[in-house]
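User: Here's a chain of 277 residues. Predict its fold as tokens.
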Amino acid sequence: MVGINVLQTFLFPPPPSVFVTAMSFISFGSLANAGFSELKGKHMQYSKFLNWNPNNQQKNPSSTITQQKSKLSSKIGMAILYTPAFLFGFASLFIFPDEGLRFFLLRFTLTIHFLKRVLEVLFVHRFGGSGVARDAAIPIALSYFLSTVTMIYAQYLSVEFSEPSFDLKYAGVVLFLLGIVGNFYHHYILATLRGKGEKEYKIPKGGLFNLVICPHYLFEVLGFVGVSCIAQTPYTLSFTAGTTLYLMGRSYATKKWYLSKFEDFPRDLKAFLPFIF
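Assistant: Prediction complete.
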């Protein structure tokens, strides 16, 4: 009972929506399961993990041909992942009526988040020859889209409730900005590792890469913590918790990938949180 009262101090009540309630469980459960799958070696099929099997480095020529036919180029595939969520976020700025600063900040930050991702795909990232599996692109894109829709819809339904006792939206804006800037900075470092025309992967250095393998994931989580503070809804909190577990699993898988590719990769380097994990 005490725990529920504490949560109500920081969160809006759950809205009377079967859809939002179901999505709270689905989003957290699916993202957490994806994170545990990454830990067990079953990876989302995009980027450097496409068709990577740490237990079998040899490739079957016939299966390679099949894989080439069933994948999208990295630039097209990654753009597909983020564009639907961006378009809905942008449209929501005009579709929904003015319901106060908090509601506007949520829609605006989500739109900026996915716009940044699309622009990075188009103008910043330098991709290897890995690509994105066709059968993975649609579910991932749908996940981002539905999560964005649900966060905005849950916020819209929460407008009628009294504000939480602790207003975290301004702290959320600060955390979101720190997250998005830190994420971009480390994406830029990754992009500049390769010279023009180079496709091979290299060990990243600089920024927080000297402390953790995936600082870009750490800052992405920080950005979503900021979004959760802006929204202060149970759904956005559950999505952020699930995203954190997924990216922790993905970071651990990334460490295993680097160790399998580079003999001189530092084995004691943490995956996600400096000095901890």
